[in-house]
Design a protein that fits this description.
Number of strands: 0
Radius of gyration: 18 Å
Structural class: mainly alpha
Strand content: under 5%
Shape: globular
Distance between the termini: 31 Å
Number of helices: 11
Number of domains: 1
Order of helices and strands: HHHHHHHHHHH
Length: 296
């Protein structure tokens, strides 16, 4: 099967300044901030799991274009893990957030998944998770006002992540279709991915709010409900694209949103490392991802 990806996948080696992070960086709302912090906590080991799942089948892919996209996918995901790892560590160092136990949980949970699930199940789960992150990315790109006016590194980093999730949104799916393609495994895995994604993220958010004594902050809770349900509608507005995944003939690029990233690509250059620094950073990121895979 030839790749159906419509745009180039470019590996950007970023270097965001994590100094001076505000505790409640999303409009001074603890509930929304800690929801997004919880998302970031899942990313480093989650990205390494995705790399591992795709690499399991890399040698079975014969299409040169898809082979190149796999390499770019790995490079992008490694860099996502590196930057979110730095962001998470900054939250620990600057604000004493109890993320170490949550990062340890993620590492252990994904190590368990690698032992309990077959390689094809892991790849099907990865395809599901990648669709989930791609439609969240699409929402951020469509509703830039939801994140772009947040001062500091936050909007730049999350929009960069959204651009690259869009670029490679079909890679894991195309690999799955090439080496397996079982419809029922794909949709079962998506349902499981959705359950685990929501459970883990909301439990982490609850724990962070409890740590800060903000569970009873009803104004922030109402703001979070608005954020999820209405503006930008992080939950409700993704439902149509989410349900598309359950169609037998679905492909991620049936929703062509290239136009949303074109204007952002140039703005990303200001945060990119110089070539020598970039090569060193990418090698370190890929080695870290490979080491995590080998350790598991």
């Amino acid at each position: 099967m030839a790749s159906k990806t419509l745009i180039p996948i470019r590996v950007r080696r970023m270097d965001y300044d994590m100094s001076g992070l505000r505790r409640y960086w999303y409009k001074d709302n603890p509930w929304i901030t800690h929801f997004l912090n919880a998302l970031s906590t899942t990313f480093p080991d989650g990205e390494r799991f995705f790399i591992h799942s795709v690499r399991n089948f890399e040698k079975q892919i014969t299409d040169p274009e898809l082979q190149a996209q796999i390499r770019a996918f790995i490079g992008q995901e490694a860099n996502h893990g590196k930057e979110h790892e730095a962001f998470n560590q900054a939250l620990i160092d600057q604000h004493g957030l109890p993320l170490e136990s949550k990062l340890k949980f993620m590492k252990g949970a994904l190590a368990w998944a690698k032992k309990q699930w077959s390689p094809r199940q892991q790849l099907a789960m990865t395809a599901g998770f990648e669709h989930f992150t791609a439609i969240l990315a699409n929402l951020l790109l469509e509703r830039k006002d939801a994140i772009a006016d947040i001062p500091g590194v936050y909007s730049d980093m999350f929009l960069w992540h959204a651009v690259e999730e869009t670029e490679h949104k079909a890679v894991a799916f195309d690999v799955y279709q090439e080496v397996d393609g079982d419809y029922w495994l794909r949709v079962r895995s998506m349902a499981m991915a959705t359950f685990f994604f929501m459970l883990v993220t909301l439990r982490m958010q609850h724990s962070l709010l409890k740590h800060d004594g903000k569970l009873g902050d009803w104004r922030s809770a109402l703001g979070f409900a608005k954020f999820m349900l209405f503006k930008p509608g992080m939950l409700t507005r993704i439902i149509p694209q989410y349900l598309d995944y359950y169609r037998p003939g679905f492909h991620p690029w049936q929703h062509d949103n290239r136009h949303l990233i074109n204007e952002l690509i140039e703005t990303l250059r200001s945060h990119e490392l110089r070539p020598a620094e970039a090569a060193q950073a990418t090698q370190a990121g890929v080695m870290a991802a490979s080491g995590a895979v080998a350790a598991a």
